[in-house]
UniProtKB/TrEMBL annotation, chain A:
It comes from Devosia rhodophyticola. Keywords: Sigma factor, Transcription, Transcription regulation. Residues 101-153 form the RNA polymerase sigma factor 70 region 4 type domain. It comes from the Bacteria. This is Sigma-70 family RNA polymerase sigma factor.
TrEMBL record, chain B:
This is Anti-sigma factor. Keywords: Membrane, Transmembrane, Transmembrane helix. InterPro entries: Anti_sigma_zinc_sf (IPR041916). It comes from Devosia rhodophyticola. The chain crosses the membrane at residues 85-107.
Length: 169, 269
């Protein structure tokens, strides 16, 4: 049983990372993760998954995220200026700051279903099969979402004709 | 793999989703197809950029409210309210305390602070009983120093109950930061011949709180908790129920006797 809790514990940093990338808001992200953990813990005796714990946690987190988007649409949510505070202060040297900021904006303006899919693959390193299960969609749908997301990102970089991120050194 | 490479295939390659054989085939293809190679490089750079933007969040220290052990301890408390009160009643009878005291305890309890204390005690227990060389800060050989040091730091006289009657010997103790509400905590650790350990987690009393007695079980770990006007105390261990209760009773009686002896005159009555 506590082995199960250990597995949940090990997933917490990744859940925070994913939630932060989805919401762009530290407090909102940690609220989602807390809700997710509470649900997972409360289900551990009756509803624990037969398979690995990590994808199951991401499924719970995504459901909560979608619910929060729905209630946001209903009630409206003030978006704080702090959103920008989650930008990394010092981006890695191989990327120009402008490019990163632009990419961040492009990711945030992706339709939610594309953003969810892209981040599961590119940030969390799930396999296509796992990600498709987490999202509850066929693998082909997942891949087309990924493809569309990446085309959008490329276009937003002003480089749609030339498929290359400029590297500013 | 001699057919023209689909965009999906290139994307799967960039995402590291292909089998070793398929990956090798794509790599060979890329050597002679500059467009495809540029596409793959772009996809990989997008991945790198996403990691640069968002990966650092996972390296941050996890805040207390997201600690799984703590959440589980709190939840198990809430799920076990009825069981808990039944068990508390049994222990109170064992302690030779009357129902009036019990009723007062019920009315005066302040759940949030107590939840937090029990969760912290269980959390601290799980961390330090696993330690071999660094289980305690001050070892049992320096018991007098341990008692005066912890009493000073908690600004309330505490003791190290003698549990040799229960087969447990003092390992030592340590000072812990505790919670903002309750301040510093002392953790005292005991061990028996079978190397089973119990800890006693003591803080100064929570202001404005009367006597409370509660217990909670979290997985294998049981926490027996009480407060009085001087201290809060949580006895934590993974021993069978009956043994936990015996130890809890011994700790309670000795610490209560100590407080009676140290009771300042104005608090009498």
């Amino acid at each position: 049983m506590s082995d199960f809790l250990d597995q949940i514990e090990q997933a917490v940093p990744a859940l925070r990372r994913y939630a932060r990338a989805l919401t762009r808001n530290l407090d909102l992200a940690d609220d989602l993760v807390q809700d997710c953990l509470e649900r997972a813990i409360s289900r551990r005796s009756l509803f624990r998954p037969r398979g690995p714990v990590r994808p199951w946690l991401f499924t719970i987190l995504l459901n909560l995220f979608r619910n929060s988007l729905r209630s946001e649409r209903r009630h409206g949510t003030a978006v704080g200026l702090d959103d920008l505070a989650t930008e990394p202060a010092t981006p890695a040297p191989q990327h120009g700051h402008m490019e990163l900021a632009e990419l961040a904006r492009a990711i945030q303006s992706l339709p939610p279903e594309q953003k969810e899919a892209l981040l599961l693959i590119a940030l969390e390193g799930f396999s296509y099969n796992e990600a498709a299960k987490i999202l509850g969609i066929p693998q082909g749908t997942l891949m087309s979402r990924l493809g569309r997301a990446r085309t959008t990102l490329r276009a937003s970089n002003g480089n749609s004709s030339e498929p290359r991120l400029r590297t500013v050194k | 793999m001699s057919a023209p490479m689909t965009r999906e295939m290139l994307m799967a390659f960039a995402d590291g989703q292909l089998s070793p054989a398929d990956s090798a085939a794509v790599r060979i293809y890329l050597e002679t197809h500059a467009d495809a190679a540029a596409e793959v490089a772009l996809l990989q750079r997008q991945r790198d950029a996403i990691a640069t933007l968002y990966a650092p969040a996972a390296a941050e220290p996890v805040p207390a409210r997201l600690r799984v052990q703590r959440l589980a301890a709190e939840q198990s408390r809430h799920h076990n309210v009825r069981v808990r009160w039944a068990a508390a009643a049994i222990i109170l009878v064992g302690l030779g305390l009357g129902a009036g005291w019990f009723g007062r305890a019920y009315l005066d309890r302040s759940p949030s602070a107590n939840d937090q204390l029990m969760a912290s005690a269980v959390y601290a227990h799980n961390i330090f009983v696993a330690e071999k060389r660094h289980a305690v800060e001050v070892v049992a050989a320096e018991q007098d120093h341990l008692v005066s040091w912890l009493s000073n730091r908690l600004a309330t006289p505490i003791g190290t109950p003698d549990l040799t009657g229960e087969g447990f010997f003092l390992v030592g103790g340590r000072l812990l930061p505790g919670d903002p509400k309750t301040g510093r905590a002392a953790q005292i650790m005991y061990e028996n011949a079978a190397a089973e350990r119990v800890t006693v987690y003591i803080t100064a009393a929570v202001r404005g709180q009367g006597d409370v007695y509660e217990n909670a079980r979290f997985d294998q770990t049981e926490a027996l908790f009480w407060t009085n006007p001087f201290i809060t105390c949580t006895v934590v261990g993974t021993l069978p129920d009956a043994q936990m209760k015996t130890i809890g009773r011994a700790v309670y009686q000795q610490l209560t006797a100590l407080e009676e002896a140290n009771k300042p005159p104005e608090r009498q009555g």
